[in-house]
Amino acid sequence: MKRVTPIIIIVTIFIVSALRTCRSGDDGVSKDTGKEVKQLPIDKALQSRTDSFITAQPSVGSVGLMVYDLTAQRSVYAHRADVPMRPASCMKLLSCIAAIRKTGANYKYRTRLYTTGRVEKDTLSGNIILKTQFDPSFNRDSLYNLLGSLKGKGIKAIKGNVILDMAFTEPMDHEQHWTPGDLKVSRMGLIYHGYKKMRVETLYALQSATGITVNKDRIRFGRLVPEKATMIGEITTPLRTPIEKALKNSSNINAESLLYLLGYTVNTKGNFRNNGIMALRNFIKQELKMDPSKVCNIEDGCGLCPDTRLSPELLIALLNYAYKHPYIYREVLSGLPLSGTDGTLYDRLRKPNVAGKIKAKTGTLTREGGISSLSGYFTGSDGHRMAFSIINNECPVMDGRWWQDRFCERVLLPKAATTQSR
After folding, report:
1. pLDDT of res. 344
2. What is the mean predicted confidence (pLDDT) over 315-333?
């Protein structure tokens, strides 16, 4: 029998040990490299304060809560965080973040005016075409300004047709579970009033505001043929305009308009609200890597529907997703209300230790026993960037707000440890 040399034994032991290390995924060891991965510590004091608050504070309705350390990428505390609950307007976070991801932060709505034919003296022997998209801020003044481009060309009469090329012709309607008055029609952009309203407004703008003669029977729905038309006017609106209104002022109209925009990216025809809901579910599955059937039920884009549900865990995943994508994070931070300063947080969280230190989306719905929610960002006492989400269901709205404000003041940013939000 041949003797096994000590060198061979040592080499064999080293190889076996190395293989075992590479296969291990526990205790901060990488499966791919075998190198130890150092985890950043979380704030144990914050964890303890959260636990004490949940235990000692009287329950206000049904509460779901999660606090997450974005810097360390670790959960600090979770209480019923995996339970889908009615989020009210915190639903707008999903619509806004998904829209920015789908279109890009620099996306602009473009409403354009085209002409065909030629101008003879002061008469256009051809058509004008108004090409609209989904701009929720396009109003009567916008229409007057755009049609004013015709006067700039010396046009006083139109012999051809006035064609309205609209992505959808029916007005935005109430979701089946909304109550009358949920949709503030007076605040809707002209495009969302539908074709009939646009037709009336266009005729009035041409005849009264710009003094252009046109046969009212020649205003009709149609499609632009770009190669046969010349653009003479354009109005643009950046995506950040409806994003900010949806987040800072909790505008339902602007949030729903994002659902229509998302729906159009899925399918240029059909029901844009249903298509938009499909886009949101796809975003959750593909971008957040979560199962929509377990973490949500989506019925609208703004959270007015009491059947819409999101889990605090999903809202944290959304905030974390934005944080990991700087171009999204910038837009979300810019749009969110600042505690005690503006938007829907203007008159909340005004104590010195929290005022100006929390950026968060509020949610309020008086139906189903009362719904209140608060989800956003703050900077912890250890300098780590943090995210939190609180949902109170089946409780008076003011009680839910009181509970959330006390949590922020006593747990997230107690007087002894406050850090400026950024």
Report:
1. 98
2. 98
| Listed ranges 2-16, 179-193, 252-266; the one with the highest mean pLDDT | 252-266
User: H or E element: which one contains 210?
Assistant: none
C-alpha 68/C-alpha 78 separation (Å) is 9
In angstroms, the CA 143 to CA 160 distance is 19
SS3 content of the chain, % helix, strand, coil (to 5): 40, 20, 40
Instruction: Give Cα 276 distance to the centre of its chain.
Output: 12
Which residue type occupies 91?
M
* pLDDT above 80 for 53: yes
Q: How far apart are CA 262 and CA 100, in angstroms?
A: 10
Band (pLDDT 50/70/90 cuts) for residue 24 is: very low
Report in angstroms the alpha-carbon separations of 403 from 150, 235, 278: 57, 45, 34
Q: Which of 97, 157, 145, 82 is CA-nearest to residue 335?
A: 97
Strand partners, 79: 65
Strand, coil or helix: 376: strand
List, edge to edge, every strand of the sheet that includes 123-125: 118-120, 123-125, 157-158
348 residue type, one letter: R
Q: Which residue from 240, 205, 252 is spatially nearest to 335, judged by alpha carbons?
A: 240
Strand partners, 378: 358, 386
Q: Is residue 16 very low, low, confident or very high in pLDDT (cuts 50, 70, 90)?
A: very low
What pTM value is reported for the model?
Answer: 0.88
Instruction: Specify the residue for token string 């770009």.
Output: 226
Sign of CA dihedral 337, 281, 319, 409: positive
Give the integer Cα–Cα distance in Å for 356 and 341.
6
Q: How far is CA 264 from CA 49, 94, 131, 275, in A?
A: 46, 17, 15, 7
Using an 8 Å Cβ cutoff, are 201 and 143 in contact? yes
DSSP 17-77: HHHHHHH--STTB-TTT-PBPPPPPP-HHHHHHHHHHHHHSPP-SEEEEEEEETTTTEEEE
Percent of the chain's residues with pLDDT above 90: 74
SS3 238: strand
Find where tokens 């012999």 sit: 159
- Arithmetic mean of pLDDT, 182-211: 90
Max CA pair span of the chain? 112
